[in-house]
Design goal:
The protein has about 210 residues and is mostly helical. It is about 75% helix and about 0% strand.
């Protein structure tokens, strides 16, 4: 029902026609609805991570703790695993979304392997001879992944073996991540390394690479 005030007009002059009253009432309801929707959208946008927050690129406030090297790499592992999961859930016709996700996966993996090979692995080699074999294996695994990444970047969804290559890349990365997190990282925690300083150096390099990607 319309509000009582619309049915009992108190002002002088001719009583407005019913259609005019209905239009006024509906306009009021719609205005309130739009305001609610705008507020909800603003809240959603505010909750979305910015580009700088992607793939371990957390924007820290003064009260937040900077990620150390292992925390940064682990957060990147989690991010890329989530991207692979999103890719797997796409249908055959979602070619645009597949291309976008595959390109992002490749870009982030290139950045990730680069900061490991430029900064993280050399730091480990400098303090531990016992980890040489493990690090050599990690570099070889990176090379295999990079070769597959290069192939995927030159392809388009719908090409023969496109989906299969992204899937196999995901399996490579899953195996590599498991070895790092279950075998390498626990050993690194025991080394005489300033992981906070190393994490800061890696984060700075990450930002440089993403800015030029």
């Amino acid at each position: 029902m319309f509000p009582k005030s619309y049915n009992s007009w108190q002002f002088g002059g001719a009583r407005p026609a019913l259609p005019a009253i209905q239009a006024l009432y509906l306009h009021s309801v719609r205005s309130r609805t739009v305001c609610v929707e705008v507020a909800a959208h603003a809240a959603y946008v505010a909750s979305e991570p910015s580009i700088s927050n992607r793939f371990g690129g957390i924007t820290m406030t003064k009260k937040d703790k900077q990620q150390d090297a292992i925390e940064l790499l682990t957060s990147q592992h989690d991010e890329v695993k989530a991207l692979f999961k999103q890719f797997d859930e796409l249908g055959e016709r979602a070619t645009t979304s597949k291309k976008k996700l595959a390109d992002e996966i490749c870009e982030q993996l290139i950045m990730h392997t680069q900061i490991e090979e430029e900064i993280f692995y050399p730091a480990l080699r400098s303090v531990s001879k016992e980890m040489e074999d493990m690090l050599d294996e990690a570099v070889v695994e990176h090379a295999s992944a990079k070769d597959l990444i290069s192939q995927i970047q030159e392809m388009e969804p719908g090409d023969d073996l496109y989906d299969a290559k992204v899937t196999v890349l995901g399996e490579y990365i899953e195996h590599h991540v498991d070895e790092e997190e279950e075998e390498m990282f626990p050993k690194v925690r025991k080394l005489k390394l300033d992981l906070d300083a190393l994490g800061a150096e890696m984060a700075a390099r990450r930002d440089e690479l993403l800015a030029t990607a």
